[in-house]
């Protein structure tokens, strides 16, 4: 049962209220500041009925003391001196509501009931907020909650984790959540993108090398496994690793030791292995392109991330988060999205998953001239539900002068925002006057 504390210097009121609530709560009564101090030290009240005129003590001071001890305590103020000013002060001080004397027991019981329901909804919203964004993973669908449950289950266990999901679903975010929510959170988290490193270099990246091990090895270098010692190593796109390196990774996992290139000595390692792939590793293993023994070593605890199409109910939450991100990044003030635009994005097919949605929302924020993203801001989405998005990248030829590079970036940015120089200036972090001057100078060159 919850604890209810009644604070009033009139004993008759305390007795009446105590009788009214004694079947629903553990009731405590304080008729003086001494009784209050004694009770508050021994019992943590969930709900407080507080008389604003508490003897010679100002009830607002008592309210402040209660909230300083427990900001979540529900305080309902009772007063026979009900003025707008005192009521506002009480609410500002953290009171849930107020009621005037003489008290109507039915009314105050209803008020207490409503306050508890309100607190329950508030707690649920707080919990949902935790679920909705944990280490950047946003959602409250059943499939994303299953991912959160898997993270909680495995975070403190020294077992290998294989994260599977389509490109753009957030596999690295899950890997970081596993590491930073677990017992190794204060140790290194080392990321290796196996698809981004040439096959002839990946061995040295993973295991390091000694000085003179090969041409150009002018000093010794630690590998990712050694740098991740006592922490976690995240091997992203593990399915792109060649069979030779797969064998060396398998040996490192089995023996918990590595041998840098050019060294005859092994080094003990204690790194947790987290891997990710958008491939079907089991199928690859059956076809011979991935070692079956390594697959079973890595797949001790699998976590599967659903595609965005499988969790469309998370799209509104993701959009809200991406709008906030765009506002912070580009110093904008987009307040939200219209129902029509939201419906378009919820129903769209996403081959690029969350990453694609973020790209669309970011571009829509840039294109938005009002406070809300509307259908017009999403005109790149065709009736076939495909996105015709301008490239976010500029390819620069090596050897270009800095002036030429600046010119290319400015013109490509203007093109990106469909000729809106004010938006281009904001993205580039320069004044609108400067961008007009630059464009005029480019025209003069012709």
Description:
It contains 18 helices and 18 strands. By secondary structure, the chain is an alpha/beta fold. Helix 1 (11-21) links the parallel strand 1 (3-7) and strand 2 (26-30). Helix 13 (315-330) crosses helix 15 (353-367) and helix 16 crosses helix 17 (421-428). The longest helix is centred in the N-terminal third of the chain and has 28 residues, at 105-132. The chain is extended. Mean pLDDT is 86; it is low at 382-390.
Give descriptors for this structure.
446 residues; five-stranded parallel β-sheet; 18 strands; 15% strand; extended
Work out the helicity level. Answer: 40-55%
Q: Rough shape?
A: extended
Radius of gyration: 31 Å
Strand segment tally: 18
Strand fraction equals 5-15%
- The residue ranges in which pLDDT falls below 50 over 5 or more consecutive positions are 382-390
User: Can you give the mean pLDDT?
Assistant: 86
N/C terminus separation: 82 Å
Number of helices: 18
State the major sheet.
5 strands, parallel
Main sheet: which strands, in order across?
Answer: 2-1-3-6-7
Q: How are the elements arranged and paired?
A:
Layout: E1 3-7, H1 11-21, E2 26-30, H2 33-42, E3 47-51, E4 53-54, E5 57-58, H3 59-69, E6 74-79, H4 84-92, E7 97-100, H5 105-132, E8 133-134, E9 137-138, H6 142-154, E10 161-164, H7 171-180, E11 189-193, H8 199-207, H9 224-227, E12 232-236, H10 243-255, E13 257-258, E14 267-268, E15 272-277, H11 281-287, H12 292-298, E16 301-304, H13 315-330, E17 336-337, H14 339-347, H15 353-367, E18 372-373, H16 402-416, H17 421-428, H18 432-445
Parallel strand pairs: 1-2, 1-3, 3-6, 6-7, 10-15, 10-16, 11-12, 12-15, 17-18
Antiparallel strand pairs: 4-5, 8-9, 13-14
